[in-house]
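Risk register update: the risk of archive-format incompatibility is retired. Evidence:
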Amino acid sequence: MICLVLLVGFAVLRYHDPPPVEELRIRTFDTFQLIDPRVKKIRPVTIVDIDEKSLADPRLGQWPWPRTRIADMVNTLTRMGAVVIAFDVVFAESDRLNPDNAAENFRGLDEATREKLRALPSNDRIFAEAIKNSRVVVGESGVLEPRSDLDKNLPVTGFVTGGEDPDPHLWQFPGLLRNVKVLEEAAAGRGLFTIVPERDGLVRRVPMIMLAQGTRMPSLTFEILRVLIGSNTTIIIKTGKEGIESLILQGLKLKMPTDSSARFWVHYAANDPSIYVSAVDLLDGKVKPEMVARKIVLIGTSATGMNDIKTTPVSKAIPGVEIHAQVLETVFEGLNASGTSLSRPSQSEPFEFATALLAGLLVIAFAPNLGPATLFGVGALFATALIGTSWFYYIEKRQLIDFTYPLLSTTAIYLTLIFSSFVREQAQRKQIRGQFAQYMSPVLVEQLAQSPEKLVLGGEEREMTIMFSDVRGFTTISESFKHDPQGLTRLMNRFLTPLTNVILARKGYIDKYMGDAIMAFWNAPLDDTQHEINACNAAIDMLEKIDEVNKEREEEAREDGHPFLPLNVGVGLNTGVGVVGNMGSDLKFNYSVLGDSVNLASRLEGQTKEYGFPIIVGSKTAMAVKEKFAILELDFIMVKGKTEPEVIYAIGGREDVAQSEGFQRLRNLTIEMLACYRSRDWDGALAAIARGRASDDADTLEHLFELYETRIKSYKVSPPPPDWNGAYQLLTK
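Archived output:
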């Protein structure tokens, strides 16, 4: 009965198709494309690339270029025989280099010259004339905010609809960014070039029809196909209750295979540099005629700074304009040979439901009576058949059939049937936990319960954040308890307990206690992708906990009439590669970490009293958390035992402290002082210190000011060597 309920539950889950289920399915289709991408048979598209080479050419300059230069590109392409020219760029504002703008903004012009400039045609008008003399599709963009300046009178592409209203099923944008009016009116077509990645950032499906600020718009590629047939061609949208059923272009034997949201599955080929020509080469007349003649020409960019790089199932980085080219290639190859366009047929879901239902019932009926080996063999055969069928439909018919749903549904039912075996294994793990829980950390015990083979000597290398903390002046405090050792023990437990709890709460691992000191680390034995942030949060939490303990102890001392000696903690943090694992002897070992990064963390903790800051971190830790914490550079030091210097930082608080005016002043003072100090401007550094002492926040940096003042006075007497790089050699650990 449990398995039957599970079978129904999987059916309901698949019917509602939440994002994780869909993502698993489409990632399988990604794998198919990665194994067998489309092989190009024709190249109907050329891309004129506004590339880094073009933007670096001093004759062309930075983007945006004058519209007259774009007009030259259009005229050149038209003369060379381009059948359609399309822009993967939007010209939403008038050209800033229009002559009338120059007349108003250029200084030193006489009135006659201004009048001559005003009389010249605008760059936009020249560009519009070039567009009018060719077949040009201008690009538009869907945006996330409605545009109050949207001109409702600009021309749009006409549609004929059949059946239900298609708009609720279309991909929608709140706003629409269009070109300036003169360009829109001159163009033969206009379409949205906006490409919408899916939840994981990959572009698999490109919407062919979209709704932007209430206006139904074709995609750039679909509009190119329409203009290619003829500017008066109509787009027919047929819609059923479940969504878009078909998109048809009159005059072309083409029925676009889309999903219910009018999205086209792109059958990707590998990135093809051969279809690109540089915009500067086009303007210089260096492009071969056959690259343009009788071709669709897309004008777009691959320049990194233009922010149009996408990820596809077969390419980690591809210019967005090439995705439009791949859509067009897939369509044209589909016209010449069947089975090149990818599709998800309407009968695929019923087939997948039926397969999952039948397989689940067979497992429920026969699995309890089959031996493990037979059941494994049958399961492997079933999985192979499912995957093979899905692969066959992809290779032979270019249809996307999902095997993950029936396979996962059947596997889940099988796992439920062997739950009793799992319970027995859990009992064995519980026994291991009971035997070792008194001797080892709970995290490590859990790992041993899951993998008993880890109970051996050995280690692994991984990046970690290491912490050393120590109580300042603990020797003086402990001397006050020389006649009360039990009181000293209670005091140690009183401050070690909250500090330990803070570290564990922030996902840290306690390596060892060394009297009043604690050594801990992050990102082992379990992975922690934010180990630097968690360690810094733990350090700040520790200071807060110590303050709470001190307030309680001060109140108790006042009531008892005893002197009060506060506890102060110094914390050193460093991030780096260390060797972590079970270390020791064959008879007794401990889970610990070794390495140069550990030694540096220990040295940094020792420097907290020298620099007057309770938390000091290494450069790698600081760089990883600089957006989340108030980071203050302290020094460039050579610690004892190391040959390479290290920039060290103090952490003054979390993000709220970093944004405060007081901390900003402290940081600016420190930056100024360090800059003068490292450039040997001793007087400038002393002047910066003097200004710092006169500020409202002088007390915070006084310890640091005294340290540098002492060094500078020493360097004035005995200057550092000529090759001095600003590093200070520490003489103590």
